[in-house]
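Entry for the shared binder. Reason: the reviewer on the internal report wants the predicted structure included alongside the sequence.
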Amino acid sequence: MASDTYHDQANIHPLPLGQAIRALPAQYLKIITRPSVRSFSEEKEKATWGSTWLQLIALGILSACFSVLANMIAPPHLGNFPGVSPATLQIVTMTLLASFILVATPLSFLVAGAILYGCARLFKGDGSYLEQVYTLTLFGVPLVLLSSLLQLIPATNSWLPYLPHLYSLILLVFSLMAVHHRSLGKALAIVLIPLGILLVLALVGTIMLVTLAQHS
């Protein structure tokens, strides 16, 4: 059992970029429908920066397009600005939002990968940063796209788009175990420590805002 859990497939090597792109749909399907440490161990050996960057850039573009489409289906209430027509305000808002998503989406994967990689090193993880980010894309890209598609359903867009992200936490634990050869408990700690810090910071920020509001 231990050999199945942590054994890396030494006979698997990175593919040429064109071949790697064609193989991505099958990799996505494998990781999402058959999640396991073994699946990630097999796929991480194919990691290249070319494939990783291509996925992140494509995800940024598609996420920005879905965001614009969602705002067209259910336009948000933006209020009134003197001298600016509602149509112009809507266009400016969508353009700024799309630009932000275009940049922030790839950046969020790189930052998240760096944080997880740093935490894994604290637990003596031995994987590479490339493998960390690449395995994140194998489930992050399809699940973020699924979440963006679910955002287009007005009746359920307040909760349904978040379900794929919850599933991604499970896949993240498997990926950490495969990339860094850590146990389930240590992989959970690597995930929970950054989440705990974010929650504490959010709580402190909320308390500070409430305190400032009460004294203003």
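Summary line for the report: Residues 1-7 have pLDDT under 50 and may be disordered.
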